[in-house]
Design goal:
The chain is of the alpha/beta class. Helix content is 29%, strand content 19%. The mean pLDDT is 96. It binds adenine. The site of adenine has 11 residues, from strand 5.
């Protein structure tokens, strides 16, 4: 799966994407991530990308020209939908992340900064708007990382065991509920013992215990 991420801060992404599972997924060509610096597309002689809002009000907005040119340029290589990360968007859920992974080979993620972006970019070029929760962050970069991570877990082969995203919290297999408690060695830690049933080797009983302890 290919992600093209449009941002004023491409470097924010490097440490997160270049470690652990997402790094391995890229090494194995399951995941292909391209970062684009919106500022490079500004035709302003000072590379300005923001301006004051018509009608007044606090803060600055991202101007349409650099965004438009950046998206149009990326669309030549990536034919997937454009997703704008914004607190005004539909809420990102397990089901939405899974659907994006199942129905797309490529996605374009647009990260806003300041008070937002000019509405005409949304009208002309944005296909979906997604929020990662009812709070406002300083930009769409963390939301884009959250989204790319959540979607990538559903790409076959990205998780060690192909099936594990289907057994996680919120999955259909767990009836949309959250996972049961997990334990590993040692059997006793700081006076707390692993429940006897989990050490019994009785799979039917373990299954029953886990079902009962779903949240
Ligand atoms: N940009 C700023 N806050 C956001 C949020 N909660 N979700 C998505 N994008 C955002």
């Amino acid at each position: 799966m290919r992600f093209d991420i449009l941002t004023l801060f491409p470097e924010m992404f490097s440490s997160y994407f270049n470690e652990s599972i997402l790094k391995r997924a890229q090494d194995e060509s399951l995941l292909d991530i391209h970062l684009h610096d919106i500022r490079k597309f500004s035709k302003n002689k000072h590379k300005k990308v923001d301006d004051t809002p018509y009608g007044g009000g606090a803060g600055m907005l991202m101007t349409p020209q650099p965004l438009y040119d950046c998206i149009v340029s990326v669309k030549k290589k990536n034919k997937g939908p454009v997703i704008f990360m914004t607190p005004q968007g539909s809420k990102l859920t397990h089901t939405r992340a899974r659907r994006f992974a199942r129905t797309n080979d490529s996605l374009i993620l647009l990260c806003g900064r300041y008070e937002g972006i000019d509405q005409r970019i949304r009208d002309l070029l944005v296909d979906y708007e997604l929020s990662i929760g009812d709070y406002v962050l300083t930009g769409g970069e963390l939301p884009a990382m959250v989204f790319a991570d959540a979607v990538s877990r559903f790409i076959p082969g990205v998780l060690g065991d192909d099936d594990s995203a289907e057994e996680d919290s919120f999955s259909r297999r767990l009836g949309g509920r959250k996972e049961y408690p997990h334990y590993t060695k040692p059997a006793k830690f700081k006076g707390l013992e692993v429940p006897e049933v989990l050490r019994s080797g009785n799979h039917a009983k373990i299954e029953k215990w886990r079902k009962k302890h779903l949240k």
